[in-house]
């Protein structure tokens, strides 16, 4: 054979090329690192299962998203452009102190914060906001009142700011 391996296992060829052994070493090395593909979202979705392997990464050139192929053929997003959302809400809470916020981010946020605004109408003491029930379209903010043992701030006007990352 006309090659040796470097520190990374890459074939290093000399002047004595040995076919087919050297060609197979080269193919084996390429196969070890052929676990990353790139193309459009449509190309990723159309990639036949026979051309995918468990753990293979696919970088979408049109969206910037990075997916990993899982056993059973499912793609899982592992990285990509972060989506940010935010806004100011001024509304009355429901009977449980809850306000539903439609975020329009197209995916369930991985983090949401809500902070009561300084100009929010306050009856009594301090108000605090708790976020819950996060979905791909909305989340809920429950407002609680400090001078009542943090009971829900039910049926009252409130103003708060929210930020989210998906």
User: Looking across the biggest beta sheet, what order are the strands in?
Assistant: 3-4-5-6
Q: What structural category characterises the helix and strand content?
A: mainly beta
Distance between the termini: 52 Å
Enumerate the spans where pLDDT stays under 50 for 5 or more consecutive residues: none
Sheet with the most strands, sense and barrel status: 4 strands, mixed
Count up the domains. Answer: 2
Shape: rod-shaped
Which percent band covers the strand fraction? 35-45%
Radius of gyration: 27 Å
CATH fold-level topology of the largest domain: Immunoglobulin-like
Topology overview:
Elements: E1 3-5, E2 11-13, H1 21-33, E3 36-39, H2 41-46, E4 57-60, E5 66-69, E6 75-79, E7 84-92, E8 98-102, E9 111-116, E10 127-132, E11 138-145, E12 151-152, E13 157-165
Parallel strand pairs: 3-4
Antiparallel strand pairs: 1-2, 4-5, 5-6, 7-13, 8-11, 9-13, 10-11, 11-12
Structure description:
This protein is 11% helix and 41% strand. The protein has helices at residues 21-33, 41-46, and strands at 3-5, 11-13, 36-39, 57-60, 66-69, 75-79, 84-92, 98-102, 111-116, 127-132, 138-145, 151-152, 157-165. The protein has two domains: 3-79, no CATH class; 84-165, Immunoglobulin-like. It is rod-shaped, with a radius of gyration of 27 Å. The chain is mainly beta and 166 residues long. A hairpin with a 5-residue loop joins β4 and β5 (66-69). The two termini are 52 Å apart.
């Amino acid at each position: 054979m006309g090659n040796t391996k470097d520190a990374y296992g890459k074939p290093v060829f000399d002047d004595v090329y040995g076919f087919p052994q050297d060609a197979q070493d080269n193919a084996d090395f390429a196969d070890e690192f052929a676990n990353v593909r790139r193309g459009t979202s449509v190309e990723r979705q159309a990639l036949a299962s026979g051309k995918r392997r468990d753990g293979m990464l696919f970088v979408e050139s049109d969206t910037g998203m990075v997916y990993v192929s899982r056993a059973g053929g499912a793609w899982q997003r592992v990285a990509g452009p972060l989506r940010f959302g935010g806004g100011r809400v001024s509304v009355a809470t429901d009977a449980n102190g809850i306000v539903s916020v439609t975020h329009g981010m197209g995916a369930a946020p991985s983090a949401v914060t809500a902070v009561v605004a300084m100009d929010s109408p306050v009856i009594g003491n301090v108000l605090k906001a708790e976020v819950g029930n996060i979905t791909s379209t909305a989340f809920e903010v429950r407002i609680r009142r400090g001078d009542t043992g943090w009971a829900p701030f039910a049926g009252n006007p409130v103003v708060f700011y929210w930020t989210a990352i998906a």
